[in-house]
Amino acid sequence: MADDPKLLQELSDEFQKVQGELQSTVEGRQQLESQQQENKGVQKEFSKLGEDANIYKLVGPVLLKQDKSEAVLAVDGRLDFIEKEIRRVEMQINDLQSNGEKKKIEVNRFLAQSSILISADSV
């Protein structure tokens, strides 16, 4: 009975840790979605350009001329990478949500057992 508050605190800390990880992972996914939308916008703009269009890439403080085919390949590659990352992060989010639910159940079960023990002791 003396370890009950300590055990409850440990369970609560584990739950909060999972919730924190989940929150930061969701934020990471939102960043990826933002990057994906930006790159889709660039891809859409590229489709409007002719083959002889001048495309420039910003590298540090300098604009460098780039072939359209090279620029399209770079954007397509980034989109593929971002989509794979989104899928990976979604799996991670699902795992964290599942883990969080398990921790929540553990805390609730512990609280229920503690309240049963307390009510039995007071009888």
Which runs of at least 5 residues are low in confidence (pLDDT < 50)? none
Q: Can you count the helices?
A: 2
Class derived from helix and strand content: mainly alpha
Tell me the β content: 5-15%
Percent helix range: over 70%
Query: What is the average of the pLDDT values?
Result: 90
From the N-terminal CA to the C-terminal CA, the straight-line distance is 17 Å
Radius of gyration, in Å, reads 26 Å
Q: What does the oligomeric state look like here?
A: single chain
Q: What's the SSE pattern? A: HEEH
Largest sheet: 2 strands, antiparallel
Shape category: rod-shaped
Number of strands: 2
Walk across the major sheet and give the strand order.
Answer: 1-2
Summarize the structure.
This protein has 123 residues and is mainly alpha-helical.
Structural notes for this entry:
With 123 residues, the chain is mainly alpha-helical. 80% of the residues lie in helices and 8% in strands. The protein contains two helices and two strands; from the N terminus they run H-E-E-H. It has helices at residues 4-48, 68-121, and strands spanning 55-59, 62-66. A two-stranded antiparallel sheet has the order 1-2. A hairpin with a 2-residue loop joins strand 1 (55-59) and strand 2. The two termini are 17 Å apart.
